Amino acid sequence: MSDLAARLRALPGFPEEMPGLDPDSVPADPAVLFLGWLEDAIASGARQPHAMTFQTLDGGAPVGRTLILKDLDERGLHVSTHRSSRKGEQLAADSRAAMTFFWRESGRQVQVRGEVVALDEETSQADWRARPTYDGAPNLDWQVYALQPEWWEFTQSRQDRRHVRIGYRREGGGWVHGPVTTPAG
Ligand SMILES: Cc1cc2nc3c(=O)[nH]c(=O)nc-3n(C[C@H](O)[C@H](O)[C@H](O)COP(=O)(O)O)c2cc1C
Q1: Residue ID of nearest Cα to ligand 1 atom 13
Q2: Which residues contact 26 (CB under 8 A, 6 or more apart)?
Q3: Which phi-psi region, left, alpha or beta, contains residue 41 (left: φ > 0; alpha: ψ -120 to 50)?
Q4: Which residues line ligand 1 (CB under 6 A)?
Q5: Is 37 helix (H, G, I), strand (E, B) or coil?
Q6: Ligand 1 binding pocket mutation candidate from 47, 54, 55, 67 (most atoms within 8 A of CB)
Q7: What domains, with CATH codes, occur in the chain?
Q8: Residue whose CA lies nearest to ligand 1 atom number 3
Q9: Which atom of ligand 1 is the closest one to the Cα of 87?
Q10: Which of 28, 49, 110, 168 could cross-link with 41 by S-S, CB 3.0 to 4.6 Å?
Q11: Whole-structure pTM value
């Protein structure tokens, strides 16, 4: 094993105390579970609990970067960026995207995937105006997008590595959910 590999292996892992996740008592609506976990992350005092990795497709190849979650409503999970950015152009070419949240203080991960839609101009400009650097000028390149979830996976890590994972997928007008039992690390 290289020196780097040995040092990485020796780094501290999950916290001693982590919440549980009971597959039999999760909410039917994954957004409810997500909002509960987000509230926990906010309450923990962790910096930028609303930051996540946002993955798009660049000619079929995945590419991720960190973005801030701006809102969650019936339209989906909101992010904002420049329409002319690489991610904006990637979304114009292929609207599929994914988000990965990781809250290390609780050993929790949320993955969500779906189609992204561009929201209306007023929503985008309201987000632009709310930025701390707003100087009074509108920005017509600014765009709020909403990811409309089709698939979620929630992971609650455990010290013994028997992580609990719950998957949700859209079926008809609602959601079906259940434990995910494929191998995990
Ligand atoms: C903590 C953090 C939060 C960020 N939030 C945003 C964001 O909300 N919107 C955004 O456009 N870029 C944000 N960025 C910058 C992006 O990660 C990225 O570098 C930039 O948007 C260009 O991405 P692209 O070239 O893939 O389009 C953030 C970066 C960091 C480190």
Answers
A1: 67
A2: 33, 154, 166, 177
A3: alpha
A4: 48, 51, 65-68, 79-81, 85-87
A5: helix
A6: 67
A7: 21-177 (2.30.110.10)
A8: 67
A9: 27
A10: 49
A11: 0.97
